[in-house]
User: Which sequence fits this backbone?
């Protein structure tokens, strides 16, 4: 199978969908002729022009609201925020209108819309490093999608575009150049299916977004110490596939959750709570979380390195959990 | 199902209101939308429609018209026709299902209490020690039939983990690893003076993990051996009178079908009297203090298939021999068949161990911490004894050796000897302790 980067794979998914359905269009800053700050739309402007690749001024609230209206009328907009942080300016309309219209209209109005943006700490400072996963998990009607591998980026973006509900599609900036095999043509991944990216038997590590990559490295370190870690990538946080996590914990009886995003009320808190509710009697030790430090992403590289979990700190947390 | 009728909220800020009146009679059939009752809110009286259809059953002990009650208070039920016959107000003591439900709950409750109780085994000072065990390990232990209270956990702060349970469960399998090292006091390593001769290693016949109870015994005995200052005194006593006393009691008990006091029961009773007279022996060390105990609880060493178990006869000083005989027979039976409770093994102040049935004369028992002393009874055997030195008269008497091990940390040799002498006197003259 061919290898391509995460961004190339997502772009191929977008291109395939745009070719299939003329109601799909993209809006965002610099996504037209420039091809997107993160190359999310490179080449598409030449194919579809500004009618379907619409550059916008810096007015997130305005163009997001327009897209909500367009989606209500049958279009399938993709709003490319570049950085997730920029989406915050449009949050009022997203929460109050976009995610609620389907409920408020008793299902008569659908808002099929994809919000995408880069997340994560990647030498990007406090204004461009947000993750905010649990903020979006907390909105009924919104799907929260975080692919890690290129094939998943393609498969999940295609599913996101076809979703009749709004989807937030979060791309970690450190994953964008990650290479991997990607299936050609129709490749659709359903929401709510976690992926066991590495089987193991001593403990389960659920890792979110880029932390999957660091956790796989940690699992190699652990293997040298005779510890077999099972690594799970949830792929979507809403819906959350707790069944796969529970099945794994039923085997390993220990759970570590690694998330670059903050611990308080975070995705890990939700996973831990659900696991406790459904799998309490499978637990041989308290569920443990390893999170990014509860501070805005620092600009200084040494500080940045200190606040984000890495393979060594993950392996250490796993060892601690095993002797708990 | 029956539909609940509750006091509705008439305005968004209404928190309580009063039932003004029922507009329908108890037992009447009411259709959805018909007016059912009226409510007196803060500002007005409002008539309320039925939201469902059914026979109106007004809660007998519910709010009366005019009573102010919180919004949501249950007023009654609308019961569908097909359920009218079986309908009962919750909590009513009418026969049928509600009562059975209550009974079922009564059965469940003690089981829960028991499991809570089991979570805390008494520690050395008699206080409950909390045992920590993971939910999974506990479920695993229950499914494998492992008594997790006997396990020493290898997790943080001694928490029991699944692997500890699994290790215990592999009992009996050869080469099974021991879950956690036994906390036996180890002497410092001694350098061998001469190199050890190269011997053929002994062939192993069998190797098995220690059973939980064996581990417990091992720990306990080793702790006693290494922390007490044990001294054993032996004294040969003339048990002829005791033997004849027992025979009398036996004949009497047999005639009215009651439990026959064993020699252990007799020894327990007379030791209790001696202990009351020598309270220093009925004592234990707690920290830096010596605590004398007001009651005499005597443990009886029982040999079982699983190992040595020592159930406790309580308040021996206040019990009659007949009570003791019944209690000890029941206790020993429970101990042998494994149904003895944790509590029944706790709280002894003195121990009696008897090896007479194995034709043992004297031995050196090990003190069962935190007690001060233990007495070992040897066999009762007829011997020629000089009963009158002046005339040189020799008689055949029933003789027995008592072996008293005491903890020299608590008492001195003379105190222990006086106590043993008193026991000897009681054995030889049972009337003395029968009068108390």
Assistant:
């Amino acid at each position: 199978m061919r290898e391509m980067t995460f961004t190339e794979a997502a772009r191929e998914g977008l291109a395939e969908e745009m070719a299939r359905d003329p109601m799909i269009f993209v809006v965002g800053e610099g996504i037209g002729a420039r091809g997107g700050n993160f190359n999310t739309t490179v080449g598409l402007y030449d194919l579809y022009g500004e009618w379907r690749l619409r550059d916008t001024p810096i007015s997130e609230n305005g163009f997001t609201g327009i897209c909500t209206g367009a989606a209500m009328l049958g279009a399938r907009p993709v709003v490319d925020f570049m950085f997730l942080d920029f989406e915050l300016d449009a949050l009022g309309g997203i929460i109050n209108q976009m995610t609620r219209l389907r409920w408020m209209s008793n299902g008569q109005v659908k808002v099929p819309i994809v919000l995408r943006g880069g997340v994560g700490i990647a030498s990007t400072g406090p204004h461009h490093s947000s993750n905010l996963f649990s903020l979006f998990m907390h909105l009924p009607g919104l799907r929260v999608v975080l692919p890690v591998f290129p094939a998943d980026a393609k498969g999940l973006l295609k599913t996101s575009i076809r979703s009749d509900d709004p989807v937030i599609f979060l791309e970690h900036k450190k994953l964008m150049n990650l290479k991997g095999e990607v299936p050609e043509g129709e490749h659709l991944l359903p929401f709510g299916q976690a992926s066991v990216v590495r089987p193991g038997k001593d403990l389960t590590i659920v890792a979110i977004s880029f932390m999957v990559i660091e956790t796989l490295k940690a699992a190699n370190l652990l293997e040298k110490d005779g510890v077999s870690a099972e690594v799970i990538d949830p792929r979507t946080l809403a819906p959350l596939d707790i069944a796969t996590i529970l099945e794994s914990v039923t085997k390993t009886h220990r759970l570590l959750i690694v998330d670059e995003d903050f611990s308080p009320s975070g995705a890990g808190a939700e996973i831990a709570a659900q696991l406790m509710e459904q799998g309490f009697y499978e637990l041989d030790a308290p569920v443990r979380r390893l999170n990014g430090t509860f501070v805005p992403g620092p600009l200084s590289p040494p500080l940045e390195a200190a606040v984000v979990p890495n393979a060594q700190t993950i392996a250490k947390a796993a060892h601690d959990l095993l002797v708990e | 199902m029956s539909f609940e009728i509750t006091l509705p909220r008439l305005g968004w800020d209404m928190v309580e209101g009063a039932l003004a009146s029922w507009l329908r009679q108890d037992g009447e059939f009411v259709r959805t939308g018909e007016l059912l009752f009226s409510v007196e809110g803060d500002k007005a009286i409002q008539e309320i429609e039925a939201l469902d259809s059914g026979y109106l059953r007004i809660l007998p002990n519910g709010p009366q018209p005019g009573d102010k009650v919180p919004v949501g208070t249950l007023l009654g039920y609308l019961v569908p026709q097909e359920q009218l016959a079986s309908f009962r107000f919750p909590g009513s003591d009418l026969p049928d299902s509600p009562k059975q439900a209550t009974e079922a709950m009564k059965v469940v409750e003690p089981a829960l209490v028991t499991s809570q109780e089991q979570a805390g085994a008494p520690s050395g000072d008699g206080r409950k020690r909390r045992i920590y065990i993971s939910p999974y390990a506990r479920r695993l232990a229950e499914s494998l039939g492992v008594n997790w209270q006997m396990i020493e956990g290898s997790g943080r702060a001694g928490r029991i983990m699944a692997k500890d349970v699994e290790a215990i469960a592999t009992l009996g399998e050869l080469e099974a690893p021991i879950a956690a090292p036994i906390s036996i006091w180890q002497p410092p390593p001694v350098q061998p003076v001469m190199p050890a001769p190269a011997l053929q290693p002994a062939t192993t016949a069998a190797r098995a993990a220690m059973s939980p109870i064996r581990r417990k015994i091992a720990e306990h005995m080793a702790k006693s051996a290494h922390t007490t200052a044990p001294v054993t005194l032996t004294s040969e006593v003339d048990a002829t009178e005791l033997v004849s006393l027992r025979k009398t009691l036996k004949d009497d008990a047999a005639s009215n079908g009651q439990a026959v006091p064993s020699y252990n029961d007799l020894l327990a009773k007379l030791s209790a009297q001696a202990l009351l007279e020598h309270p220093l022996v009925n004592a234990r060390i707690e920290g830096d203090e010596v605590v004398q105990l007001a009651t005499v609880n005597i443990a009886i060493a029982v040999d079982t298939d699983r190992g040595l178990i020592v159930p406790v006869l309580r308040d021996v000083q206040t019990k009659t021999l007949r009570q003791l005989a019944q209690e000890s027979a029941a206790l020993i039976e429970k101990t042998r068949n494994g149904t003895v409770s944790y509590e029944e093994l706790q709280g002894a102040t003195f121990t009696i161990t008897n090896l007479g049935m194995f034709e043992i004369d004297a031995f050196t028992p090990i003190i069962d911490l935190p007690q001060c002393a233990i007495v070992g009874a040897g066999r009762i055997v007829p011997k020629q004894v000089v009963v009158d030195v002046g005339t040189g008269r020799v008689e055949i008497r029933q003789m027995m050796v008592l072996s008293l091990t005491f903890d020299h940390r608590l008492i001195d040799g003379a105190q222990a000897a006086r106590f043993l002498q008193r026991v000897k006197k009681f054995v030889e003259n049972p009337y003395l302790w029968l009068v108390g």
